[in-house]
Design goal:
By secondary structure, the protein is α+β, with helices and mostly antiparallel strands. The chain has two domains: 45 residues, no CATH class; 179 residues, Sandwich (Jelly Rolls). Helix content is 20%, strand content 35%. A hairpin with a 2-residue loop joins strand 7 and strand 8.
């Protein structure tokens, strides 16, 4: 068998393997009817409701000194509220957030420091973004992305107020993100939490068949070469 034919068969097998890898569609959590679980009700506490989509949330992963204004809060509010209801601050512009958002205004009044919450992924993600609303002190909003205990990077804004988006992408899988949404003296709402990940797709039956055929042809070609060498 010629080298060209061997190369062609090897390429076919490699193509079968590559076809088993794909990019997942982004998961976008809006807390409204259009998100993966149909949203959350006003007054509900955000936690593990989105676990089936690869993420859970928990309050106050940062505690102690080091917050943007004072110590980190130990009781970050995780209540879902209406962005047009009484339990929010002024959300500002442009209109990035709508419907329900995370962070009760009255819950914020009871926090004992600078609020923050964590997003924890069951499978490492490649990108993460959040929309913020009601920002008065821009330097009190930031994302901290981690792979395990290793900080991959921090994203913040020192100039924008009102509503804006912060995003972080990484070739190294992101396993968790800590979101600092405001400070002790600045209520900030959160909406449109979005992330994306590369996944190993389950191959179609035809892919398995092609892969088996390619391996079989490579094995047959190898035996033919061995027999030819004995002659």
């Amino acid at each position: 068998m010629t080298m060209f034919k061997y190369s062609t068969l090897a390429a076919a097998v490699a193509l079968c393997l590559l076809s088993a890898t794909a990019s997942a569609d982004p998961v976008r959590i809006t807390f409204d009817a259009d998100d993966p679980i149909g949203g959350l009700a006003e007054g509900e506490t955000l936690g593990n409701q989105y676990a089936a989509y690869g993420v859970t949330f928990a309050p106050s992963p940062f505690t102690g000194p080091g917050g943007p204004v004072t110590d980190w809060a130990t009781n970050t509010d995780m209540t879902i509220v209406s962005s047009e209801g009484f339990d929010v601050g002024g959300v500002g512009t442009p209109p990035l957030v709508s419907g329900n958002v995370l962070h009760s205004f009255f819950g914020w009044l009871g926090e004992d420091g600078d609020p923050n919450f964590g997003a924890y992924f069951s499978q490492g993600v490649t990108s993460f973004s959040v929309d913020f609303a009601g920002v008065f002190f821009p330097d009190s909003v930031a994302l901290y992305a981690y792979n395990g205990s290793t900080l991959l990077g921090t994203v913040g804004s020192n100039v924008e107020t009102g509503q804006f988006t912060l995003s972080f992408s990484s070739a190294t899988p992101i396993t968790s993100v800590v979101i600092n949404h405001g400070a002790f003296d600045d209520w900030v709402g959160v909406d449109n939490i979005t992330f994306n990940t590369a996944v190993s797709a389950v191959p179609e039956p035809s892919t398995y068949a092609m892969f088996g055929l390619g391996l079989g042809l490579l094995g047959l070609a190898g035996r033919k070469r061995a027999n030819a060498a004995k002659r």
